[in-house]
Amino acid sequence: MVLLGKVSNGTVILPPNSRLAEGTEVEVRPRPSLDSIALSGAVADLTDELVSLAAQTRGLPADLAAQHDHYLHGQPKR
Fold first, then answer.
1. Contact 61, 71 (CB under 8 A)
2. Collapsing DSSP states into helix, strand and coil, what is residue 43?
3. Phi-psi label, residue 51: left if phi above 0, alpha if psi -120 to 50, beta otherwise
4. pTM, full prediction
5. How many C-beta atoms lie closer than 10 Å to residue 14's C-beta?
6. Fewest CB within 10 A of the end CB: N or C in the chain?
7. How far apart are CA 17 and CA 1, in angstroms?
8. How many CB atoms lie within 10 A of CB 71?
9. pLDDT 10s digit of each residue in the chain, 78 long?
């Protein structure tokens, strides 16, 4: 079982529905944030390629992000 929590004032806060027996030993391993992860060369190259491709797009609807289900799958607009 894996539980995700957050630190608040030095205490790990678990989700309300988490139930651990009193005295249960736990292992706490901080998860790296995206800000703390340096992009490797391959990821940086892919990112550059995607940014370059995105810069070339023209004529897309202004509401594409909000209405992507409509444009991709034919769902009614929300």
1. yes
2. helix
3. alpha
4. 0.39
5. 13
6. N
7. 13
8. 13
9. 889 999 999 999 999 999 899 999 999 988 877 665 666 677 778 888 899 988 888 899 999 999 999 999 999 999
Please identify which residue in the block is written with the tokens 């539980």.
Answer: 3
Model pLDDT, residue 43: 78
Instruction: Enumerate residues 6+ apart whose C-beta is below 8 A from 77.
Output: 63, 67, 70
Q: Report the half-sphere exposure of 44 (CA within 13 A, side-chain side).
A: 5
Amino acid at 5: G
pLDDT at residue 44, rounded to an integer:
78
Cβ contacts of 64 within 8 Å, gap of 6 or more: 71
